[in-house]
From TrEMBL:
The lineage of its organism: Bacteria, Bacillati, Actinomycetota, Actinomycetes, Micrococcales. Residues 320-332 have a biased composition (Basic and acidic residues). This is LLM class flavin-dependent oxidoreductase. It comes from the Bacteria. PANTHER family: ALKANESULFONATE MONOOXYGENASE-RELATED, C2H2 FINGER DOMAIN TRANSCRIPTION FACTOR (EUROFUNG)-RELATED. Keywords: Flavoprotein, FMN, Monooxygenase, Oxidoreductase. Residues 310-332 are annotated as: Disordered. The keyword Ribonucleoprotein does not apply. Belongs to the NtaA/SnaA/DszA monooxygenase family. Residues 43-390 form the Luciferase-like domain. It comes from Mycetocola lacteus. One of its GO terms (molecular function) is oxidoreductase activity, acting on paired donors, with incorporation or reduction of molecular oxygen. FMN binds at T113, Y167, S220.
Length: 452
């Protein structure tokens, strides 16, 4: 299969436009549980059929993206004791799906979200090495954690893990997996940690990268420290300039403690987008998308999640509830603690009163994803400026329609980025995901990784 390259407007460097400009990195995301995908739209496809994932991957590859990224769902969320029917029901397992996608793509990276709390390092090391082999070095692992018994109920150990121990276990799982990737194939092997112990497990044959690219998404202090030590990409929740700059500065300081620099890490916040031929058209498209994302049912369910009360009698176009949140957690699998819920409720009430917002309007304002809004040229200019600032290295794009929503961005914004000299016109010579991300060798392979 010949890879179709998108080179609609080729950039020719000049003396005044040298190749020193920071290059934009882009990722295509197929989420699982989320409010951003408008599954009710007639343009939406299936969330389980292979063709949906293949289309997204091929489109992202046509746009010369770094990788495609799949979410993980250990269990469907529940709301008031029932399956939360605003969620996606049923999602394929990421690793076998990405293995299949490796056969219909050539260069784009393949990143799976896999939980380190409820999975064992020997199995994970073998599965990721297998994906790396099948894809010729394009595997990545988004390492996530969970301490909730709600998710743990589907696993033999249950929800045993204290919240404070999540990243301790994640670090041990990574170190044990790295030791397996580094071990001589067929050699006897042992690993001793506080939570992980491996005895006489034969080493796995590492893939072309030696270790998959490690992605991290947690934003707590422990999550950031874990990212500074092990991660090569941070899937950031901060896209606005001030919080993005604070995160970059914090990670840069933490990286130095592990002998790493800012250039050893890619920071990629998530963003959706709304394009138009004019600014006014783009703004109107953005409003329509946001309204489709936050239906009246979604608005009420979201407020019930925060307030911990049955609020089904409320008018979504009326005011927020006046009472404080109750003790009940009506949402399982996505419920902040009571103290956090009270802070969120107070913040929402303050904004609603200050700006005269209805319940649905304040929910839309507060839960909507960061959105790149404008003409293709304006969106490209914004992305280029964000990356030039050093706050971020690009974006993880989450279209509101799956799987075809990315097509418009690839067709209209990528050429604008190329014209500005901040985006590749072909993939680099190196064939691995780490080559595409322009990253050094994995820290898991270059440092002395010990059990403790």
């Amino acid at each position: 299969m010949r890879l179709r390259r998108l080179v609609l407007r080729r950039w020719v460097p000049t003396v005044n436009n040298a190749r020193t400009a920071r290059q934009v990195h882009l990722v295509g995301y197929f989420p699982g549980v989320n409010h951003s995908t408008v599954w009710s739209d007639p343009g939406s496809g299936s969330q389980v059929e292979f063709d949906s994932f293949a289309h997204l991957a091929r489109t992202a590859e046509r746009g010369l993206f770094d990788y495609v990224f799949l979410a993980e769902g250990l269990r469907l969320r529940e709301h008031k004791g029932e399956i939360h029917d605003l969620d996606v029901v049923g999602r394929p397992a990421a690793l076998p799906l990405l293995s299949a996608l490796s056969t219909v793509t050539e260069r784009i990276g393949l990143v799976a979200t896999v939980n380190s709390t409820f999975n064992d390092p020997a199995d994970l090391a073998r599965q990721f090495a297998t994906l790396d082999h099948l894809s010729a070095g394009r595997a990545g692992w988004n390492v996530v954690t969970s301490s909730e018994a709600f998710f743990g109920a589907n696993f033999r150990r249950g929800g045993y893990l204290d919240r404070n121990d999540r990243y301790d276990r994640a670090a041990e799982v990574l170190r044990a997996a790295a030791a397996l990737w580094r071990a001589r194939p067929g050699a006897e092997f042992g690993f001793r940690g506080a939570q992980i112990r491996l005895d006489r497990v034969s080493g796995v044959t590492p893939g072309p990268q030696g270790a998959p690219v490690i992605v991290q998404a947690g934003d707590s202090a422990d999550g950031r420290e874990f990212a500074a030590e092990y991660a090569e990409v941070v899937f950031s929740p901060h896209a606005d300039p001030e919080p993005a700059a604070r995160l970059a500065a914090d990670l840069t300081e933490r990286l130095a403690r592990f002998g790493r620099t800012r250039e050893d890490l890619r920071i990629l916040p998530s963003a959706t987008f709304a394009l138009g031929d004019t600014e006014a058209e783009a703004q109107e498209n953005a409003r329509e998308i946001a309204r489709a994302q936050v239906t009246p049912q979604t608005a009420i369910a979201t407020v019930e999640r925060i307030w911990g009360r049955d609020l089904s009698n409320l008018d979504p176009d009326g005011p927020l509830p006046h009472e404080e949140p109750g003790e009940d957690e009506l949402r399982r699998g996505q419920a902040p603690h009571l103290g956090e819920r009270r802070k969120i409720a107070a913040d929402w009430q303050e904004h609603a009163q200050a700006e005269g917002l209805s319940l649905r309007e304040v929910v839309t304002r507060k839960i909507s994803s960061f959105t790149l809004v404008g003409t293709p040229a304006a969106v490209a200019e914004r992305i280029a400026a964000d990356v030039a600032s050093g706050r971020v290295d690009g974006y993880v794009l989450v279209p509101h329609l799956q799987p075809h929503g990315l097509d418009t961005f690839v067709d209209r914004v990528i050429p604008e980025l190329q014209e500005r000299g901040v985006y590749r016109t072909e993939y680099p010579e190196g064939t691995t995901l780490r080559d595409v991300l322009d990253l050094p060798r994995s820290p898991l392979l270059t440092r002395d990784i010990r059990a403790n």
